[in-house]
Amino acid sequence: MRALRYEGPATGVVLSRSTPEPEVREGEALVRPIKMAIGAADVLMASRKPDVPPVTMGREFVGIVEKIGNSRGAKEKGPTLVGKRVVASSSVSCGDCDLCQRGLAGHCRNRAVVGVFGRDGCFADRVVLPLRNLFVVPSDVDDDRAVFAEALSSAVHAAQQLRLEGKPYITVIGDGVMGLLCGQLMNRLNAAVRVVGSHESRVDLSAKWGVKHRLERDVGRRADQDVVVDCTGTAEGFDLAMKLVRPRGKILVKGMIHPALGAAWTIDVSAIATKEIEVIGSRCGPMGEALEVLKRGEVDVVGLISKRVRLEDGVEGMRIAGRGEAIKVVVEG
Ligand SMILES: [Zn+2]
User: Fold this and answer.
1) Domains, the chain, ordered by start
2) pLDDT tens digits along 10-26
3) What's the 293 CA to ligand 1 centre distance in angstroms?
4) CA of 90 to the centre of ligand 1 (A)
5) Widest Cα–Cα separation across the chain
6) Overall pTM surpassing 0.85 (yes/no)
7) CA of 85 to the centre of ligand 1 (A)
């Protein structure tokens, strides 16, 4: 079958035509992706070429379940899923370790991330996923919307982590997909929200949603924001967040680029103590709730799709996403 593979630092990303179809084991499902989306992790992997084991890329998709692993568990849950349209959480946990047992499956000691490490991803003709990672898509959420469920779940989680008092000032740094999703979601809270980014073209898009958007160069560093949500993943973004947040304010960190991907984390964090800043880390979120948000039409995700490519042209799609001019690149089977 076809698979868009990361083959290590020397080769980078290639479209393989001879990847064996994955085997479906007990507790798993074979899924045919219909639409996929290139995410931040894919772009980083393709552009920074880390020294990590080869893997089929891709963690954001909507697809059809074709087959369930033959097992006792399958008899209970499996048959009802065959033929269903699903999305999947990309974090695969073992279910057995102490953290899984304590309800922290997202932080499993044996965690794999679909399409990044430990588990082949969805940029392929078929992908195998654990049944417990799958979520059936409501019929009134179309494929273009459903393909955003994984990214949106992360933004939903971030919005839930903010425990707001009064009507706070919130700045979201970063006008990529995560920043624009967080901006839209948080704008629905009782708060004065602005997105700070570097793309003039995204100001109009934000205006359409009624979300304030400022260019980074125009924003004063007055340390007057109650909450700053950093969606850049970079040292520069976190540094800016520390300059914008007020004393005793909160910074929510929506992912940080790992040093294995070439990020240089050499910044002065002393302001965390001197300004008594509360720093909150934020990662994956609830897929079921993201699907509900999509069903209720609370965010515009289709407006974020700026390019569509075929899986055949996946390598070029990765280049387009990496250049940053497209907000979201959707890959179609
Ligand atoms: Zn575990």
Assistant:
1) 3-148+301-332 (3.90.180.10), 154-282 (3.40.50.720)
2) 999 999 999 999 999 99
3) 28
4) 14
5) 61
6) yes
7) 27
